[in-house]
Diaminopimelate decarboxylase (Flavobacterium macacae), 406 residues
Amino acid sequence: MQTKDLLQLADQFGSPLYVYDAEKIQSQYKRLTNAFSKVESVRINYAVKALSNISVLKLLKEAGSGLDTVSIQEVQLGLTAGFSPERIIYTPNGVSFEEIEEVAHLGVQINIDNLSILEHFGAKYPEIPVCIRINPHVMAGGNANISVGHIDSKFGISVHQMPHILRIVANTGMHINGIHMHTGSDILDIEVFLYAAEILFDAAKNFKELDFLDFGSGFKVPYKKDDIETDIEELGKKLSKRFNAFTKEYGRDLTLAFEPGKFLVSEAGFFLAKVNVVKQTTSTVFAGIDSGFNHLIRPMLYGSSHLIENISNPKGKERFYSVVGYICETDTFANNRRIAEIKEGDVLCFRNAGAYCFSMASNYNSRYKPAEVLWFEGQGHLIRERETFEDLIKNQIILNFEAVAQ
Protein backbone atom coordinates (compact mmCIF):
# COMPACT_ATOMS: atom_id res chain seq x y z
CA MET A 1 0.00 0.00 0.00
CA GLN A 2 1.08 3.56 -0.67
CA THR A 3 0.67 6.67 1.47
CA LYS A 4 -1.84 8.15 -0.96
CA ASP A 5 -4.02 5.04 -0.58
CA LEU A 6 -4.07 5.38 3.21
CA LEU A 7 -4.93 9.08 3.00
CA GLN A 8 -7.72 8.32 0.58
CA LEU A 9 -9.12 5.65 2.91
CA ALA A 10 -8.98 8.01 5.90
CA ASP A 11 -10.89 10.58 3.85
CA GLN A 12 -13.42 8.01 2.62
CA PHE A 13 -14.10 6.12 5.85
CA GLY A 14 -13.10 8.66 8.50
CA SER A 15 -10.81 8.27 11.49
CA PRO A 16 -9.73 6.56 13.59
CA LEU A 17 -9.54 3.66 11.14
CA TYR A 18 -7.94 0.24 10.91
CA VAL A 19 -6.66 -0.84 7.49
CA TYR A 20 -5.31 -4.32 6.64
CA ASP A 21 -3.28 -5.17 3.55
CA ALA A 22 -4.50 -8.54 2.24
CA GLU A 23 -1.41 -9.03 0.06
CA LYS A 24 0.90 -8.76 3.10
CA ILE A 25 -1.12 -11.35 5.01
CA GLN A 26 -0.94 -13.71 2.05
CA SER A 27 2.80 -13.19 1.57
CA GLN A 28 3.52 -13.84 5.26
CA TYR A 29 1.55 -17.08 5.05
CA LYS A 30 3.58 -18.15 2.00
CA ARG A 31 6.82 -17.18 3.70
CA LEU A 32 6.04 -19.44 6.65
CA THR A 33 4.97 -22.42 4.55
CA ASN A 34 8.02 -22.01 2.30
CA ALA A 35 10.31 -22.05 5.35
CA PHE A 36 9.02 -25.53 6.22
CA SER A 37 8.68 -26.88 2.69
CA LYS A 38 11.03 -29.77 3.52
CA VAL A 39 8.42 -31.22 5.88
CA GLU A 40 5.85 -33.36 4.08
CA SER A 41 2.87 -32.43 6.26
CA VAL A 42 2.65 -28.90 7.71
CA ARG A 43 -0.42 -27.20 9.14
CA ILE A 44 -0.63 -23.50 9.90
CA ASN A 45 -3.41 -22.67 12.36
CA TYR A 46 -3.91 -18.91 12.48
CA ALA A 47 -4.35 -17.59 16.04
CA VAL A 48 -7.77 -15.93 15.87
CA LYS A 49 -7.19 -13.80 18.97
CA ALA A 50 -4.70 -11.64 17.03
CA LEU A 51 -7.36 -10.30 14.63
CA SER A 52 -10.75 -11.96 14.47
CA ASN A 53 -12.58 -10.13 11.68
CA ILE A 54 -14.47 -12.73 9.65
CA SER A 55 -13.23 -11.34 6.32
CA VAL A 56 -9.63 -11.78 7.49
CA LEU A 57 -10.43 -15.33 8.57
CA LYS A 58 -11.92 -16.07 5.14
CA LEU A 59 -8.80 -14.63 3.48
CA LEU A 60 -6.60 -17.00 5.46
CA LYS A 61 -8.91 -19.91 4.77
CA GLU A 62 -8.41 -19.33 1.05
CA ALA A 63 -4.64 -19.34 1.64
CA GLY A 64 -4.93 -22.83 3.17
CA SER A 65 -4.81 -21.99 6.87
CA GLY A 66 -6.53 -23.70 9.76
CA LEU A 67 -7.45 -21.89 12.99
CA ASP A 68 -6.14 -21.79 16.54
CA THR A 69 -8.92 -20.73 18.94
CA VAL A 70 -9.08 -20.07 22.68
CA SER A 71 -12.83 -19.63 23.23
CA ILE A 72 -16.06 -21.08 21.93
CA GLN A 73 -16.83 -17.68 20.45
CA GLU A 74 -13.66 -17.87 18.32
CA VAL A 75 -14.68 -21.38 17.27
CA GLN A 76 -18.08 -20.04 16.20
CA LEU A 77 -16.41 -17.22 14.26
CA GLY A 78 -14.29 -19.81 12.45
CA LEU A 79 -17.31 -21.91 11.57
CA THR A 80 -19.14 -18.80 10.37
CA ALA A 81 -16.14 -17.97 8.17
CA GLY A 82 -16.49 -21.39 6.52
CA PHE A 83 -13.80 -23.43 8.27
CA SER A 84 -14.65 -27.09 8.77
CA PRO A 85 -14.44 -28.28 12.41
CA GLU A 86 -11.45 -30.52 11.71
CA ARG A 87 -9.47 -27.43 10.59
CA ILE A 88 -9.88 -25.81 14.00
CA ILE A 89 -7.96 -26.49 17.21
CA TYR A 90 -9.33 -25.22 20.53
CA THR A 91 -6.79 -24.43 23.27
CA PRO A 92 -8.63 -22.90 26.24
CA ASN A 93 -7.27 -21.94 29.63
CA GLY A 94 -9.35 -21.83 32.78
CA VAL A 95 -12.71 -22.23 31.01
CA SER A 96 -15.63 -24.29 32.27
CA PHE A 97 -15.88 -27.98 31.48
CA GLU A 98 -19.25 -27.25 29.88
CA GLU A 99 -17.63 -24.99 27.30
CA ILE A 100 -15.06 -27.66 26.43
CA GLU A 101 -17.88 -30.18 26.04
CA GLU A 102 -19.79 -27.83 23.76
CA VAL A 103 -16.76 -27.33 21.52
CA ALA A 104 -16.04 -31.07 21.45
CA HIS A 105 -19.58 -31.78 20.25
CA LEU A 106 -18.90 -29.44 17.30
CA GLY A 107 -16.16 -31.80 16.12
CA VAL A 108 -13.27 -29.42 16.82
CA GLN A 109 -9.83 -30.67 17.95
CA ILE A 110 -9.58 -30.29 21.73
CA ASN A 111 -6.29 -29.25 23.38
CA ILE A 112 -6.22 -29.63 27.20
CA ASP A 113 -3.73 -27.96 29.56
CA ASN A 114 -4.99 -29.08 32.98
CA LEU A 115 -4.70 -32.46 34.75
CA SER A 116 -8.13 -32.36 36.39
CA ILE A 117 -9.88 -31.40 33.13
CA LEU A 118 -7.91 -34.08 31.27
CA GLU A 119 -9.08 -36.74 33.73
CA HIS A 120 -12.68 -35.52 33.70
CA PHE A 121 -12.80 -35.34 29.90
CA GLY A 122 -11.09 -38.71 29.44
CA ALA A 123 -13.47 -40.42 31.83
CA LYS A 124 -16.55 -39.00 30.10
CA TYR A 125 -15.39 -38.97 26.46
CA PRO A 126 -12.60 -41.55 26.02
CA GLU A 127 -13.52 -41.93 22.35
CA ILE A 128 -12.77 -38.26 21.46
CA PRO A 129 -9.12 -37.68 20.48
CA VAL A 130 -7.36 -35.07 22.60
CA CYS A 131 -4.20 -33.00 22.30
CA ILE A 132 -2.22 -32.19 25.45
CA ARG A 133 -0.57 -28.82 26.06
CA ILE A 134 2.79 -29.26 27.75
CA ASN A 135 4.54 -26.52 29.73
CA PRO A 136 8.23 -27.00 28.83
CA HIS A 137 9.43 -24.61 31.57
CA VAL A 138 11.29 -22.47 29.08
CA MET A 139 11.28 -18.71 29.54
CA ALA A 140 10.76 -17.03 26.17
CA GLY A 141 9.05 -13.91 24.90
CA GLY A 142 9.51 -10.18 24.76
CA ASN A 143 7.45 -9.28 27.85
CA ALA A 144 6.41 -11.01 31.08
CA ASN A 145 2.76 -10.78 30.01
CA ILE A 146 3.43 -12.76 26.83
CA SER A 147 5.87 -15.35 28.21
CA VAL A 148 3.72 -18.42 28.80
CA GLY A 149 6.07 -21.41 28.97
CA HIS A 150 7.96 -20.69 32.20
CA ILE A 151 7.59 -22.53 35.51
CA ASP A 152 5.19 -20.00 37.06
CA SER A 153 2.91 -19.81 34.03
CA LYS A 154 -0.76 -20.71 34.32
CA PHE A 155 -0.58 -22.37 30.90
CA GLY A 156 0.03 -26.03 30.15
CA ILE A 157 0.69 -29.19 32.15
CA SER A 158 4.21 -29.32 33.53
CA VAL A 159 6.47 -31.64 31.58
CA HIS A 160 7.54 -32.94 35.00
CA GLN A 161 3.97 -34.17 35.56
CA MET A 162 4.21 -36.67 32.72
CA PRO A 163 3.69 -39.65 35.09
CA HIS A 164 0.36 -38.12 36.14
CA ILE A 165 -0.64 -37.63 32.50
CA LEU A 166 0.23 -41.22 31.63
CA ARG A 167 -1.71 -42.53 34.63
CA ILE A 168 -4.82 -40.61 33.55
CA VAL A 169 -4.49 -41.83 29.96
CA ALA A 170 -4.08 -45.44 31.08
CA ASN A 171 -6.97 -45.28 33.53
CA THR A 172 -9.43 -43.64 31.14
CA GLY A 173 -8.34 -45.34 27.91
CA MET A 174 -8.46 -41.96 26.17
CA HIS A 175 -6.74 -41.35 22.83
CA ILE A 176 -3.99 -38.72 22.73
CA ASN A 177 -3.49 -37.62 19.12
CA GLY A 178 -1.33 -34.52 19.59
CA ILE A 179 1.21 -32.81 21.83
CA HIS A 180 1.40 -29.01 22.01
CA MET A 181 3.58 -26.29 23.50
CA HIS A 182 3.78 -22.49 23.34
CA THR A 183 6.64 -20.70 25.10
CA GLY A 184 5.74 -17.07 24.46
CA SER A 185 5.62 -14.25 21.93
CA ASP A 186 8.39 -12.16 20.34
CA ILE A 187 10.97 -14.96 20.41
CA LEU A 188 14.33 -13.68 19.17
CA ASP A 189 16.66 -16.62 19.79
CA ILE A 190 15.69 -19.60 17.64
CA GLU A 191 17.99 -21.77 19.75
CA VAL A 192 15.60 -21.28 22.67
CA PHE A 193 12.76 -22.45 20.42
CA LEU A 194 14.79 -25.47 19.28
CA TYR A 195 15.66 -26.32 22.88
CA ALA A 196 11.98 -26.30 23.82
CA ALA A 197 11.23 -28.42 20.74
CA GLU A 198 13.52 -31.14 22.07
CA ILE A 199 11.46 -31.21 25.26
CA LEU A 200 8.34 -31.68 23.13
CA PHE A 201 9.98 -34.51 21.17
CA ASP A 202 10.85 -36.28 24.43
CA ALA A 203 7.28 -35.86 25.67
CA ALA A 204 5.90 -37.25 22.41
CA LYS A 205 7.78 -40.51 22.86
CA ASN A 206 5.33 -41.40 25.64
CA PHE A 207 2.43 -41.65 23.18
CA LYS A 208 2.32 -44.18 20.35
CA GLU A 209 -0.58 -42.94 18.19
CA LEU A 210 0.07 -39.24 17.70
CA ASP A 211 -1.03 -37.49 14.52
CA PHE A 212 0.64 -34.12 15.04
CA LEU A 213 3.08 -32.07 17.10
CA ASP A 214 2.10 -28.42 17.64
CA PHE A 215 5.03 -26.08 18.31
CA GLY A 216 2.95 -22.97 19.01
CA SER A 217 4.40 -19.78 17.62
CA GLY A 218 5.69 -16.51 19.05
CA PHE A 219 7.70 -15.44 16.02
CA LYS A 220 8.83 -11.82 16.36
CA VAL A 221 8.15 -9.29 13.62
CA PRO A 222 10.09 -6.04 13.09
CA TYR A 223 8.49 -2.96 14.66
CA LYS A 224 10.85 -0.37 13.26
CA LYS A 225 13.52 -0.02 10.59
CA ASP A 226 16.38 -2.51 11.05
CA ASP A 227 14.56 -4.08 14.01
CA ILE A 228 15.42 -7.64 15.03
CA GLU A 229 12.99 -10.34 13.98
CA THR A 230 12.79 -14.12 14.22
CA ASP A 231 14.84 -15.67 11.43
CA ILE A 232 11.99 -17.85 10.21
CA GLU A 233 14.01 -19.27 7.32
CA GLU A 234 16.82 -20.41 9.61
CA LEU A 235 14.32 -21.84 12.09
CA GLY A 236 12.56 -23.64 9.24
CA LYS A 237 15.81 -25.17 8.04
CA LYS A 238 16.91 -26.40 11.48
CA LEU A 239 13.54 -27.49 12.88
CA SER A 240 12.50 -29.23 9.64
CA LYS A 241 15.65 -31.34 9.68
CA ARG A 242 15.13 -32.29 13.32
CA PHE A 243 11.40 -32.93 12.87
CA ASN A 244 11.95 -35.22 9.89
CA ALA A 245 14.55 -37.16 11.86
CA PHE A 246 12.18 -37.52 14.80
CA THR A 247 9.36 -38.73 12.53
CA LYS A 248 11.57 -41.55 11.27
CA GLU A 249 12.57 -42.41 14.81
CA TYR A 250 8.93 -42.32 15.93
CA GLY A 251 7.93 -44.70 13.13
CA ARG A 252 4.76 -42.90 12.12
CA ASP A 253 3.95 -39.98 9.83
CA LEU A 254 3.32 -36.82 11.80
CA THR A 255 2.07 -33.34 10.96
CA LEU A 256 4.11 -30.33 12.03
CA ALA A 257 1.73 -27.63 13.29
CA PHE A 258 2.15 -23.96 14.17
CA GLU A 259 -0.29 -21.34 15.39
CA PRO A 260 1.00 -17.91 14.32
CA GLY A 261 -1.05 -14.79 14.87
CA LYS A 262 1.17 -11.71 14.97
CA PHE A 263 3.52 -13.12 12.30
CA LEU A 264 0.69 -13.28 9.78
CA VAL A 265 -1.21 -10.05 10.40
CA SER A 266 0.87 -7.56 12.39
CA GLU A 267 2.78 -5.92 9.54
CA ALA A 268 -0.36 -5.90 7.39
CA GLY A 269 -2.13 -3.50 9.75
CA PHE A 270 -2.22 0.30 9.68
CA PHE A 271 -4.01 2.42 12.28
CA LEU A 272 -4.95 5.90 11.06
CA ALA A 273 -5.78 8.73 13.45
CA LYS A 274 -6.28 12.46 12.96
CA VAL A 275 -4.44 15.06 15.04
CA ASN A 276 -6.92 17.06 17.12
CA VAL A 277 -4.44 19.35 18.83
CA VAL A 278 -0.74 20.21 18.95
CA LYS A 279 -0.01 21.36 22.50
CA GLN A 280 3.25 23.00 23.59
CA THR A 281 4.11 22.78 27.31
CA THR A 282 7.22 23.92 29.14
CA SER A 283 9.06 20.73 28.23
CA THR A 284 7.07 18.76 25.66
CA VAL A 285 5.21 19.11 22.39
CA PHE A 286 2.12 16.88 22.48
CA ALA A 287 0.30 15.67 19.38
CA GLY A 288 -3.16 14.72 20.62
CA ILE A 289 -5.11 12.42 18.31
CA ASP A 290 -8.75 11.39 17.90
CA SER A 291 -8.12 8.02 19.54
CA GLY A 292 -6.59 6.52 22.67
CA PHE A 293 -5.62 3.30 24.37
CA ASN A 294 -9.25 2.27 24.03
CA HIS A 295 -8.37 1.58 20.38
CA LEU A 296 -4.68 0.63 20.64
CA ILE A 297 -3.70 -0.46 24.14
CA ARG A 298 -0.43 -2.26 23.40
CA PRO A 299 1.94 0.69 24.06
CA MET A 300 0.40 1.25 27.50
CA LEU A 301 -0.08 -2.44 28.34
CA TYR A 302 3.11 -3.98 26.96
CA GLY A 303 5.35 -0.97 26.36
CA SER A 304 5.26 -1.89 22.68
CA SER A 305 6.68 0.46 20.08
CA HIS A 306 4.72 1.25 16.92
CA LEU A 307 6.33 3.26 14.15
CA ILE A 308 4.31 6.48 13.78
CA GLU A 309 4.40 8.46 10.53
CA ASN A 310 2.79 11.75 9.57
CA ILE A 311 1.40 10.69 6.21
CA SER A 312 -0.08 14.14 5.63
CA ASN A 313 3.45 15.63 5.63
CA PRO A 314 5.84 12.70 5.01
CA LYS A 315 8.74 14.86 3.82
CA GLY A 316 8.41 17.55 6.47
CA LYS A 317 11.20 18.54 8.83
CA GLU A 318 11.35 16.17 11.77
CA ARG A 319 10.57 17.40 15.26
CA PHE A 320 10.14 15.68 18.61
CA TYR A 321 6.59 14.88 19.68
CA SER A 322 4.86 12.91 22.39
CA VAL A 323 1.84 11.32 20.74
CA VAL A 324 -1.07 11.02 23.15
CA GLY A 325 -4.73 10.06 23.06
CA TYR A 326 -8.00 11.58 24.23
CA ILE A 327 -8.66 9.16 27.09
CA CYS A 328 -9.11 10.82 30.50
CA GLU A 329 -5.97 9.40 32.11
CA THR A 330 -2.35 8.93 31.05
CA ASP A 331 -2.68 7.74 27.48
CA THR A 332 0.65 7.78 25.67
CA PHE A 333 1.56 6.13 22.37
CA ALA A 334 5.10 7.52 22.10
CA ASN A 335 7.39 9.80 24.09
CA ASN A 336 9.65 12.35 22.36
CA ARG A 337 9.44 10.58 19.02
CA ARG A 338 11.00 12.08 15.88
CA ILE A 339 8.13 12.64 13.43
CA ALA A 340 7.73 14.89 10.39
CA GLU A 341 6.29 18.23 11.50
CA ILE A 342 2.70 17.82 12.68
CA LYS A 343 -0.16 20.25 12.27
CA GLU A 344 -3.70 19.98 13.56
CA GLY A 345 -5.77 17.98 11.10
CA ASP A 346 -2.85 15.84 9.90
CA VAL A 347 -3.31 12.06 9.68
CA LEU A 348 -0.86 9.89 11.63
CA CYS A 349 -0.26 6.27 10.66
CA PHE A 350 0.66 3.64 13.24
CA ARG A 351 2.44 0.67 11.69
CA ASN A 352 2.25 -2.95 12.82
CA ALA A 353 -1.35 -2.47 13.89
CA GLY A 354 -2.73 -5.76 12.59
CA ALA A 355 -2.23 -7.95 15.67
CA TYR A 356 -3.78 -7.48 19.11
CA CYS A 357 -4.94 -3.95 18.33
CA PHE A 358 -8.57 -3.89 17.24
CA SER A 359 -9.10 -7.25 19.00
CA MET A 360 -8.19 -5.59 22.33
CA ALA A 361 -10.20 -2.40 21.68
CA SER A 362 -12.86 -1.28 24.13
CA ASN A 363 -15.52 1.36 24.66
CA TYR A 364 -13.66 3.02 27.54
CA ASN A 365 -14.82 6.64 28.03
CA SER A 366 -17.88 5.50 26.04
CA ARG A 367 -15.99 5.97 22.79
CA TYR A 368 -16.99 4.09 19.66
CA LYS A 369 -14.80 1.34 18.22
CA PRO A 370 -13.31 2.24 14.81
CA ALA A 371 -14.22 0.87 11.41
CA GLU A 372 -12.04 -1.75 9.71
CA VAL A 373 -11.07 -1.82 6.03
CA LEU A 374 -9.39 -4.59 4.02
CA TRP A 375 -7.19 -3.42 1.15
CA PHE A 376 -7.71 -6.15 -1.43
CA GLU A 377 -6.63 -6.08 -5.07
CA GLY A 378 -6.10 -2.33 -5.13
CA GLN A 379 -9.32 -1.31 -3.39
CA GLY A 380 -10.47 -0.61 0.15
CA HIS A 381 -13.36 -2.77 1.31
CA LEU A 382 -15.25 -1.92 4.50
CA ILE A 383 -15.27 -5.07 6.67
CA ARG A 384 -16.62 -3.55 9.90
CA GLU A 385 -18.70 -0.43 10.31
CA ARG A 386 -17.79 2.22 12.83
CA GLU A 387 -19.87 1.93 15.98
CA THR A 388 -22.67 4.38 16.77
CA PHE A 389 -24.40 5.55 19.93
CA GLU A 390 -27.04 2.89 19.35
CA ASP A 391 -24.31 0.23 19.59
CA LEU A 392 -23.29 1.57 23.01
CA ILE A 393 -26.75 1.24 24.52
CA LYS A 394 -28.34 -1.63 22.59
CA ASN A 395 -27.80 -4.18 25.39
CA GLN A 396 -28.53 -1.82 28.26
CA ILE A 397 -31.83 -2.03 30.08
CA ILE A 398 -32.97 1.40 31.23
CA LEU A 399 -34.59 1.05 34.61
CA ASN A 400 -37.89 2.83 35.22
CA PHE A 401 -37.28 4.06 38.78
CA GLU A 402 -40.78 5.41 39.21
CA ALA A 403 -42.31 2.04 38.36
CA VAL A 404 -39.87 0.22 40.67
CA ALA A 405 -40.64 2.59 43.53
CA GLN A 406 -44.35 1.76 43.29
Observations:
- Confidence is low (pLDDT under 50) at residues 140-150.
